[in-house]
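Quick start: read one record
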Amino acid sequence: GVPLVESGGDSVQAGGSLTLSCAASEFAECPGSNENDMSWHRERQSPGKERDFIASISNAGRTKYVDSVKGRFTVSRDKDNDMVFLQMTDLKPEDTAVYFCKRTCAWRPNIFYWGQGTQVTVSS
């Protein structure tokens, strides 16, 4: 089965906002108490594209952001429903990418899961 499912990707104009969601399934369980860190990454469609880190939220709720999205993006999680969100504001054309969420098991970081990605397109 699919461990993580992202949704919310869309085409918007520069300056617009989107909220991405990532829902975890039973196939994304971590050993023991299921403590995990969640993160968002993106792949721009360019030669030699890489999956770049954008933001993360730890099991304890600590957040981190890459400089290019600080002040514009906010990561949050709903543990009761096992979901994570990425609120994106003031979107720029360079934010155009496929966005992926990732779960990394807190005490077993060699165990991690990816979603299938959701496309965000920002036009100028």
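The longest strand covers residues 97-105.
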